[in-house]
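Render DNA-binding response regulator in 3D.
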Amino acid sequence: MVAEDDEKQAELVRRYLEHEGHAVTVVGDGLAALAEVRHREPDLLVLDVMMPRADGLDVVRVLRAEHRELPVLMLTARSTEDDLLLGLDLGADDYMTKPYSPRELMARVRTLLRRSRRGAQDAVSAADPALRVGALVVDPDRHEVSVEGRSVDCTPGEFRILAAMATEPDRVFTRQRLLEELHGFDRYISFRTVDVHIMNLRKKIEPAPRRPARLITVFGVGYKLTDPARNASHAS
């Protein structure tokens, strides 16, 4: 969720986040931010400090008093150390001053979401780190993949892509985002590298690779990993 009263800034952030594959809700004041967080329970809040009705500092103060643990990235035109420390002391997870680089903002969003997902996974089950998307199981600790009980051999790059997507089933991952996951695993990487890995994964995890049901192309955006059995149930 993005809480920003400057419509141009809000639209810029929304576009960048949607390009990364996120669903985005935008609000323009502090009270609306509180109401939408309570209603929608977003994964992350990008929060401007200077807003009408309730400023960003008040929003963070209330959210933490309600024991809501969603990551909060604050944006502000203020740049003094006191302002920075106040925001962090109230419970903000990160802080950027305006003007800021949208690319840096997206990098910080990715970092906060990864940190949040790791914490949630640890809280759910420290004993079983496996990621499950229907009959597909990805075990990051053992570096193992299985589908419908059958073991699947993956290259390091294929495993990295599958593990990243399994942390967020049904989220659309852009090719750029998957490229970042491959960094360090493939010496020469490009969008074509991502496409090749996806094609090879489909041969390994799909009953009919030419008609994929698990690893889906979202045209013009990227790819998503989904549970075909659940989708069939919803459709029926």
